[in-house]
Amino acid sequence: MKKLSARRRHPLAAVVVLLFALAVTGGLYAAFAPADTAKADETAQSLAIEEGKKLYSVGCASCHGTGGQGTTDGPSLVGVGAAAVDFQVGTGRMPLQQQGAQAPRKKSIYTQAERDQLAAYIASLGAGPAVPTKDQYSPDGADIAKGGELFRTNCAQCHNFTGKGGALSNGKYAPDLTDVNPKHIYEAMQTGPQNMPSFPDTTMSEKNKKDIIAYLDTVNSSKSESPGGLELGGLGPVSEGLFAWIFGLGALIAVAIWVAAHTAKAKKS
Question: Which of 182, 207, 209, 256 is the most exposed place for a label (fewest CB within 10 A)?
Fold first, then answer.
């Protein structure tokens, strides 16, 4: 008993007991909670990839290859990421209805769950941009003025000043951004579909993307009115000014000529 009491009074006894308790607690935690959660997540992800592969084989493999490596009819999907899949399939651009200069926007034939499965499979082929969360693309709290400045600098050349779209070369076009889901706008900036350049976070920050989305949401809102009255599709001050000079000034010249001609006739008569 005296020996046991002496050991209990040893200066290192408390430290040993504490370390033993921590080891037991950590062991139990590692053995039960995380393992089960990680295993469940891994199983769910594997099932999503498996189902996505089935959907891919039916709807995508004929153009993009059985392993996403690409063919003469479709580019490689290795490394495009889940965001590209969610955008292309979510906007109905893929599967492609027919070969052409550009894939048009149309109603999606897949449910959101199926799009998630396709995205999981394509993401498993190579790392790429992930599907953004609502916090990333929501326009709430964004700087609308800054978004307008960024849009006019980086996007207006193709989409025009208010996102109404515009023609490009060889039958291609910049689509109208009115009523487009903010998530799809964010994904388009991340992935650069078709002729559009990509704007990853290293080029344009997440906040800047939100600012652009907020600007588009404001100028294309049904409550928004053009301060200048009748608009010309938001082409911008240069194009709209040129229109005013050609047609407006041209109409004034035509009226002046008509008045002069009729005045001359009246004098002769």
Answer: 256
Residue 173's DSSP bridge partners are 167
CA atoms within 13 A on the CB side of 96: 15
* 56, containing H or E segment: helix 33-59
**pLDDT value of residue 246:** 82
Residue 82 in contact with residue 125, Cβ under 8 Å? no
How far is Cα 1 from Cα 23, in angstroms, rounded to an integer?
28
Cα–Cα distance measured from residue 91 to residue 97, given in angstroms and rounded to the nearest whole number:
13
Dihedral over Cα of 75, 48, 106, 150: its sign: negative
Nearest to 188 by CA among 105, 73, 69, 98: 105
pLDDT digits (tens, 9 = 90+) for 102-158: 999 999 999 999 999 999 999 999 999 999 999 999 999 999 999 999 999 999 999
Superfamily of domain 41-125: Cytochrome c-like domain (1.10.760.10)
Domain ranges of the chain: 41-125, 134-225
Could you read off the pLDDT of 250-261 as tens digits, one per residue? 888 888 888 888
Q: Which two tokens stand for residue 88?
A: 């292309």
Beta bridge partners, 71, equal 74
User: Under a CB-based contact definition with an 8 Å cutoff, are residues 148 and 161 in contact?
Assistant: no
Q: If DSSP codes are grouped into helix, strand and coil, which group holds residue 174?
A: strand
Q: For the structural domain made of 134-225, what CATH number should be given?
A: 1.10.760.10
In sequence order, the 6+-apart residues with CB closer than 8 A to the CB of 242 are none
